[in-house]
Structure formats: structure tokens, C-alpha cells
Amino acid sequence: MELTAERVAELSKLPTGNIADNNNNAPRQGVMHSSIKPIDPASHVFGRAVTARCYPGDNLALHQAIYAANAGDVLVLDVHGYTEAGHFGDIMALACQVRGIAGVILDGSCRDSQDIKAMGFPMFVKAFNPSGTVKKSLGEVNVPVLCGGVLVRPGDIVAGDCDGVVVVPREDEDEVFAAALAKFEKEAHIVEQLKAGKTTLEIYGFTELIEKLKNI
Fold it and tell me: Residue 122 in contact with residue 45, Cβ under 8 Å?
């Protein structure tokens, strides 16, 4: 699937829940651990993954990843879940913005969180920590990584909002997003039914289900 500006705008309207509900070929529906949250709950990110893996407390490969990414990409950064150093800060966030990077998912901690939030840059992290990092080890860029308990490969689609982060394997993306868009439209119709006075019990057929369960 080509992620044109129009296609990104169309798919970005989808809540992560709609995507996850239809991402059933991926373990755990591709949903990252709930500890990974946006700095700003209003943040939304959507794009293809550019990945990096770094030693805990070292962020050299994270700098490399910024310049391996293109406009519209999402950096997915694996620091082995380490939260006792600020692996990513406002200078790096600005470098991403200048390059048009869509956002960052970090399985670890960042610092300068208020500044990053003020910049309007979408960043999803496990924790905050003001401690500095070293630049002593060569990491790996654009390799499969584990982030939030989910395998992420370069080119997979990453979507994030206030509910969390979902990763859609590239080979499944056409099917997943067609189904997610259909669910989005269906739920828009359900909203209208609710406003017209119908109940969730009626709409979803739960009344019949409840009666059946009573007779078991």
C-alpha cells in the first residue's frame, strides 16, 4: 500500500481500537504494552516504522535512526525497556521535526517531556528520566526490534493515539485497514442509532444472547 498524503489522512482518522480489532494475525493484535503512552494524550501518530536498537543508557543509534528515516516515517526505538536514563530529548525531537518524521515510539525513557509536548511532536514512551546517556556502543538501525512486547520490522505500519500503539505487519496491511475502515463506518451508523433512541442491547443483539445464557 502506498502511503500517499491522502491515504495517511484517511487512515489517521481510525482509532487504534478499530485497527487492533482487525489485526488478528499479529500476536496480541499488535498492541504494545500499556506502559507505553503518549507524552501528550492528544497526540496521534501514523506511518511506516524505521527501527533502531540501542544498549540501555546509550543513544548513539537513536541519532543514526533520525537520519535513516524519511518524512512521514515513525521511529520505533528499542532500548530494552531501560528507564534509568533520558534516551531522547527536545534536541532530538526537533531534529525529527525538521526532517518531517511523524513521531517516535520509545520502549524506554525520555527527558525534556514538557518541551517535546510544547513542540507538538508525537512521542510515546515508557517513562521519564532526566539522567544523561553515553555514546559508546554501535547499535543497529532498520532491523527487527521488540518494542512494548511487540515485534516491529522496518516498513510495518505503526499507529498511536491516547489509547496506545498498534503495529500492523506489512503483509497484512491492506486487509487490516479495509476492515478497520468498514468498522469505523459501521460504528458511525451505530452512533446515529443510539442518538435515535436504540439501546446497545438491541443494536448488538445482546438481548437474545442474555436470554440464551439464562437458559444454559
Answer: yes
Residue with cell string 492528544: 42
- pLDDT in single tens digits along all 216 residues of the chain: 999 999 999 999 999 999 999 999 999 999 999 999 999 999 999 999 999 999 999 999 999 999 999 999 999 999 999 999 999 999 999 999 999 999 999 999 999 999 999 999 999 999 999 999 999 888 899 999 999 999 999 999 999 999 999 999 999 999 999 999 999 999 999 999 999 999 999 999 998 899 889 887
- Specify the pTM: 0.94
Q: What is the distance between the alpha carbons of residues 17 and 184, in angstroms, rounded to a whole number?
A: 10
DSSP, collapsed to helix, strand or coil, labels residue 191 as helix
Q: Are 107 and 143 in contact (CB under 8 A)?
A: no
- Buried-exposed string 177-202: b where 16+ CB fall within 10 A, e elsewhere: bebbbebbeeeeeeeeeeeeeeeeee
Residues 78 and 54: beta-carbon distance below 8 Å: yes
Give the integer Cα–Cα distance in Å for 182 and 189: 11
Beta strands 123-128; 157-161: pairing state: unpaired
